[in-house]
Design brief:
2 domains; alpha+beta; disordered C terminus; 5 strands; five-stranded antiparallel sheet
């Protein structure tokens, strides 16, 4: 009987009847298979989480790279915007009165009311309010006059070379109905920049 015929006649379910060499070879193959699959399973178990972490890190780094690349591409435009913002900020700072200019500004506001033909009944600067990087000086004002004169006053305040805003505006008719007058109560606010050298 040839070897091939012997192999064909072997029963898979009865390995104890196989020739000794074949049993040894089959046992060796099974051991090698178990060893390879065990090693492969162990490697997968330990290396798969590392691989997943590496993939996540790659995605994070890629997203960060793309974000920084977009920023770098926009650097010239952003630099130009920064220069423009600094110039605008400087222009706005020049519109804020310094502490030495406040008395003149108060006089300008008062004279604007007089130039509009209004009677000044109250002109009371209040205590300065400190904010983050600027100080705010509220001024309570009460003026009496005709409607168009009040409009000229508001236009004159807006045209002043320094920033002055008007708040809490109240317009009421004069006490005497026979007189064609209105009373304007308003709080004017002016601002000054606080730099490190300015005492607060």
């Amino acid at each position: 009987m040839s070897t091939i015929d012997e192999l064909r006649s072997l029963e898979i379910g009865e390995p104890e009847r196989w020739p000794a060499a074949l049993r040894t070879a089959a046992a060796g193959l099974v051991l090698v298979g178990v060893a390879v699959s065990g090693t492969y399973g162990f490697a997968l178990k330990t290396e798969l989480p590392r691989l997943e972490r590496a993939r996540l890190e790659e995605q994070t780094l890629r997203a960060e790279f793309e974000r920084k690349q977009r920023m770098a591409a926009n650097l010239n435009a952003l630099s130009g915007q920064l220069v423009e913002i600094e110039r605008s900020f400087g222009d706005m700072l020049r519109l804020l009165p310094g502490s030495t200019e406040l008395p003149n500004l108060l006089l300008d506001i008062s004279q604007t009311g007089q130039a509009a033909g209004l009677e000044e009944r109250l002109f009371q600067p209040e205590e300065e309010i400190q904010r983050d990087f600027y100080a705010e000086l509220p001024i309570r004002i009460r003026l009496s006059g005709r409607y168009h004169d009040l409009g000229r006053f508001v236009s004159g305040v807006v045209a002043l070379p320094r920033i002055v805003t008007l708040h809490d505006i109240s317009i009421e008719p004069a006490d005497d109905p026979a007189v064609d007058e209105l009373t304007l109560d308003v709080t004017a606010r002016t601002y000054r920049y606080l730099d490190e050298a300015t005492p607060q």
